[in-house]
User: Fold these one by one.
Assistant:
Number 1:
Amino acid sequence: MDIFFHVGLGKTGSTYLQHKFFPKLKGVHYIHHTNYKKSIEIISRKQYERYFVSREFDRQFLKEIKKFAAAYPDTHPIMVLRRQDSWIASQYRRFTKNGRGIYFNEFVDLKENKGRWDIAEMNFYEKIEQLEHYFNKKPLVLLYDELRNDPKTFFKKIAAYTDTTYDLKEISLAPKHKSYNTKQLLLVRRVSRKMLQKVSEEKMDSTKTGRRIRKIATHLIMYFHWLVPKSKFEDEKLIEQHELDAIRDHFAEDWQKCLKYIEQNAPAVE
């Protein structure tokens, strides 16, 4: 039995792949990401000879691959990477969209690692090593930039690795999620910070009602952002460029190791 496991990472086109590409692969049974928690049980029934599982992980990465590998160590893992500065910027944009009113330097702190996001999560080569350690099959590691700039080659590499086929005419190249502009996110961050001065984040998220109110509020703020003049945000940036430059420089060696691994292990495609 062949098993292929797309493990993410988050913010590397996972949602698009899960809805637009993976279900179109022929020659393998796709377990939708919404059924991931049941995937080990589903595979154990052995109704099919080949399975494809997908679920994007970030901070749960090691825990989840260890659990899956314990059940199916011969799984073929697949991971998509995005350069650390671009990846963490996208994570922060999502974090802000969800109404978390903190600045970028509170989100990730390179010097003392006291931010909301542990900087160890950006050691991507370590994740490759973990995949190699826990699974018996060499992982397929791909680049998010290739998915964006050359999706046809990206698709061919997955098909070659999984020994599957697909009809390109059936695959939409339109993104699954729309992105939010900087002004919308700045407004959400500003309002969220004021809200959190009155109600703690823990208290707001302690109930389903609180989480729902936060979600509705942030969507309303983004929808009506046009009511606020652009001049209100002239001197404010969502992320300072020097902050992203520092992250890129800090993880430059790690990223080069990832690129070398990808180049050396890329499947041959026509």
Number 2:
Amino acid sequence: MLSRRTLMGAISAAALIIGTPAMAQDELFIPLVSKGFQHQFWQAVQAGAEQAAAEEGVRITFEGPDNETMVDRQIDMLAAALANNPAAIGFAALDSQAAIPLLRQAADAGIPVVAFDSGVDSDIPVTTATTDNRAAASLAADKMAELIGGSGTVAVVAHDQTSSTGIDRRDGFLDQIEAKYPDIQVVTVQYGQGDQLQSTEVAKAILVANPELDGMFGTNEGSAIGVVNAVRELGTQGVTIIGYDSGKAQTDAIREGLMAGAITQNPVGIGYETVKAAVAATKGEDLPKIIDTGFYYYDQSNIDNAEIQAVLYD
């Protein structure tokens, strides 16, 4: 079994040499291609994947592009990983359609594909380890409506409109508002590409254009912190912020009272279940189409509860 130091060295080397063939004939090699490394979320996914790899005695690499806008770079990483003929592969798609030709080639070559976090518009993956993002965003909408008294204006800063997570979180929130809260108007949906700095500028523009805004929903870590930064920098008062994910900047904002609450996923569980499923797939075991890794809403009232602390990653 590889030590953590050796494994981390292999992961770091992957940034320079993408994909490395298995070092021993009897050792399963399972590369994971994520959306990126810019958020604490992905570091937590990696930690879960490493835990499962250690338990299963398999070798993994975990890599992704520098940011979540680099679809072409991610496709190149996927191609390089598949060229090493791995036993299975994990893939978190930045674009739900762009990778399908490569994934089809993997399936034709007998390489099981496990999607994680973000699925693809195809039945090629043997399973997808993910949060029920529509349900989670619907809960965020319910919490927003409760906090602003069931009426008013809100805006959404989403991370993208190409990945399944971006689409599902946006639409889960919008559909719930439309279905249940006729007195709440969504004035705009803007995209910050999951980047904290870009999301900050997007959120500031929204706040300036809508000075009477009651609430804002940020659909991932970068989006949510962008909203927090915008409110802080502009000195805006009275805007209810609901976030998604649970890096330290968000938990700090909740403890400060600047962010009302957020949805936390179970990123360690996502990484863990991805590797476990990949190993099972190499053995021909049946897998569910979706492995639901769960979600929770947290705020000042429950952030220190054991159940919530177990899924925070700050």
Number 3:
Amino acid sequence: MFLSIDAGNSNIVFGFYQQADDSWEEELRIPTKKGMKVYDLEKKLALFFLEKNWTADKIDQIGLSTVVPDLLPVLTRLCLGFFRKAPYVINENSYGLLPVKAMNPTEIGTDLMANITAAYLRYNSACIIVDFGTALTFSVVDQSGMVTGVNIFPGIKTAINSLFTNTAKLPKVELKMPESALGKDTVHAIQAGIFYGYSGLVRGMIEAIEQETNCNYQVILTGGMSSLMNNLGERFKTVDGNLTLKGIYQITSFNLE
């Protein structure tokens, strides 16, 4: 079994891939916190493995992507201690053998390159990957596999938390798509503003990119909030919550085979 670790600003995601039947077995999601210790992660992993009746030697190989530099030594020690295996750490030198290329590999996050790799290998065509994470990102790859641009906005949770912490009377609300774009009370008003506003942002950005490049793209949604964006229309129905984990596996495989 292969272990993909995607360590971001909001969560550390452990994804377990069974190569034999090409399936993502399970997922463990741990909130990212400042000052995380190896011991804290080991306890959560040990409990997860106990519940699944797994042993650590079930993992044959590990690929690691992180956009949080402080987590790299912690997760490396975790892998060496818990699994007795060193992870392959994806970095700007990992892309030479890939079918996708970035003009400035040091300027693009390894999580976004994982998204781009998985999407391009799936469709072998021009793609836009919309990732609803801590940040809302649009990664654009052309027909030849060249990354032509990335756009970054504050993510939905980031926007809601900013609204809650910087206002005196607006409450923190449940993250769900409201039935109407017209807010009927304070909670509904915030939900409508956020979700219908972000829906319009996504549609507008895709339209602007396609007009500028004179190209129609495959559009793939991913990230923790993508499953909630159910009012984007038929064109945005391709949702793959495992896209980053798949890309980590593929980049690692290209480099270690």
